[in-house]
Amino acid sequence: MFSVKQLVESGCLTSLPQKYVFKNTESDDCMVTELEAIPTIDFSLLTSGNPDERSKVINELGNACQEWGFFMVINHGVPETLRNEMIRATEGFFDLAGEEKRQYTGKKLFDPIRCGTSFNPKVDKVLLWRDYLKVHVHPHFSAPNKPSGFGKVLQEYCKRTREMASELLKGISESLGLEESYINEKMAVESADSHQLLVANMYPPCPQPELSMGLPPHSDHGLLTILMQNGLAGLQVMHNAKWVPVNPLPNSFLVNTGDHMEILTNGKYKSVVHRAVVNNKATRISIGTAHGPPLDTIVSPAAELVTDFVGQFFPAYRGIKYREYLELQQSKSLNGKSCLDHLRI
């Protein structure tokens, strides 16, 4: 299996191959600013049972969703040992010999396990400095058979992130003035058929990082993405027309709202454009879980959020099956919010 990791480890790389060189885009020209920091949400206050603390953090959660679409979660209760085991197991997978990973290459979108490089090499005009592993972990759990023990760690990690997503969605529902169960019930997030996709990314050291890109500016599908990384910076979020580097606190998770949150809330909580830049010093690993409804659910704006005071209905997006949206996104190169633009009314 061809991969960026294999290219780096060949020992013959002195400059960036031309097929990985990105031309400047409009978003690339936006200034990078260190002056702002993404909001921080104390998860323990959301689940503490103290009404005043919960009310305060729900307000903070709503502000974070409306103003940023991105926030950091602390005091989440996921053991640091589990997080570390998940990082190590993921590194172990990428360290497997090419022939051991080959069984997962060239697969179709909804095959249980896929690994590869770039985003969609069949249509990518420029290749991304990124290798990936994608695993559909719910409703049907799957896991690579190597490295040893990966499946057990993966299953527990994904269970904990599903639980976290469910609690966050309760708080987000309340921040919208809805019942806490609204999003979870309407999107069947807690059902046996809800969809969870794990995406692990490896960004090896790049000889000319200023010319390459790990992931170009894009938004995510789904309601929420929950992300952790191995301590190396590289994620940047678009905020007020500037790129804000994300420097998470130790043992925290990063959460962003996805395109289906924007559709469901009729644009009140927008998905956020973000990108992954690369470095020339060390390998960065990130592990994201995307949380969405069952694949055959049609996601459209919630009636409670698009009806004005005289009862007129003003949806800003047309409904689409979750499955069809994923097929649309995965058939193209990543390009900002171009997929969501197809649904705007």
Automatic annotation (TrEMBL):
Keywords: Iron, Metal-binding, Oxidoreductase. Residues 193-293 form the Fe2OG dioxygenase domain. One of its GO terms (molecular function) is metal ion binding. InterPro entries: DIOX_N, IPNS-like_FE2OG_OXY, IPNS-like_sf, Oxoglu/Fe-dep_dioxygenase_dom, Plant_2OG-oxidoreductases. PROSITE patterns: FE2OG_OXY. It holds the Pfam family 2OG-FeII_Oxy. Belongs to the iron/ascorbate-dependent oxidoreductase family. PANTHER family: OXOGLUTARATE/IRON-DEPENDENT DIOXYGENASE. This is Protein DMR6-LIKE OXYGENASE 1-like. It comes from Herrania umbratica. The lineage of its organism: Eukaryota, Viridiplantae, Streptophyta, Embryophyta, Tracheophyta.
